[in-house]
Amino acid sequence: PLEMSAKKPVPFLRQVISVRKKVHRDPRFDDLSGEYKPEIFMKTYSFLDSIKKQEKEMVQKQLKKCRNVEQKEKLQQLLNRMTQQEQAQKKQQKLRERELSLKRQQRELAKQGKKPFFLKKSEKRKLELAEKYAELKRSGKLESFLSKKRKRNAIKDKRHLPSQKNL
């Protein structure tokens, strides 16, 4: 490049080539990416479930072969995390299905000419709890679940009671 003296003043009207600034866009918040629909997302990326399953099996095999205590602990944590993610995904899916069924029922009632009735959050929670109890009853784990819940509540109640020292 041509060397220029720093002593000379810069001309007032100099030629500057404008460089276009790159516009970075985040697909999560951009309208160009479209609207997020969980059903479509799950259908599109359903192949990931099979890959995750294979990875989980591979981790289980490694865990059986492993002799190192630290490595075994890390693999166990990884396996636990994988199972928890799987359970959370199933729970989310059940929740979505339940909401879709409620929407379908509302549409049917609207077609019949009845006024739509939307459940409150508390009522949804009650329905979810009733479903959970029914599932526990079917699997035969209801009694153990209730006993644990009683113990937890008893501990909470003891915390709120005044201690013996204060009396």
TrEMBL record:
GO terms for cellular component: 90S preribosome; nucleolus. GO terms for biological process: maturation of SSU-rRNA from tricistronic rRNA transcript (SSU-rRNA, 5.8S rRNA, LSU-rRNA). The keyword Aminoacyl-tRNA synthetase does not apply. It is found in: Nucleus, Nucleolus. Residues 52-139 form a coiled coil. Keywords: Coiled coil, Nucleus, Ribonucleoprotein, Ribosome biogenesis, rRNA processing. It comes from the Eukaryota. Residues 142-167 are annotated as: Disordered. Residues 147-167 have a biased composition (Basic residues). It holds the Pfam family RRP36. InterPro entries: RRP36. The keyword Aminoacyl-tRNA synthetase does not apply. Component of the 90S pre-ribosome involved in the maturation of rRNAs. Required for early cleavages of the pre-RNAs in the 40S ribosomal subunit maturation pathway. Associates with 90S and pre-40S pre-ribosomal particles. Belongs to the RRP36 family. This is rRNA biogenesis protein RRP36.
